[in-house]
Design goal:
- The protein has 86 residues and is an alpha+beta fold.
- The chain has one domain.
- 20% of the residues lie in helices and 45% in strands.
- The protein contains one helix and four strands.
- A four-stranded antiparallel sheet has the order 1-2-3-4, covered by helices on one side.
- β2 and β3 form a beta hairpin.
- The radius of gyration is 15 Å and the shape is elongated.
- The N and C termini lie far apart (47 Å).
Length: 86
């Protein structure tokens, strides 16, 4: 099974929390890692997302926090709405 990883950066303008966690993370740029696996048995190249991680650096440590793509989009949307209200 072939796997691939894609990295991107998202920027939060305001402090935020992730679903299921009480910790408040500071505004700033965060790396997002998306892992996908190649679908077998189809006549074209296709991938299925298997995991999404937000890379969080806190107190000198780097953590990969698993988050659903939908939850990440929701947190980014809330941040954007708060940015527009200012």
């Amino acid at each position: 099974m072939n796997m691939r990883s894609t990295r991107s950066t998202v920027t939060f303008c305001h402090p935020f929390t992730l679903k299921g966690r009480s910790e408040i993370l500071p505004a700033g740029a965060y790396e997002v890692l998306v892992e996908e696996e190649e679908l077998q048995g189809v006549s074209f190249l296709a991938y299925r997302k298997t995991a999404t991680y937000l890379i969080v650096m806190r107190r000198g440590k780097t953590e990969m926090r698993e988050i659903s793509g939908e939850d990440l989009a929701a947190v980014l949307s809330l941040d954007q709405l708060a940015f527009q209200d200012n």
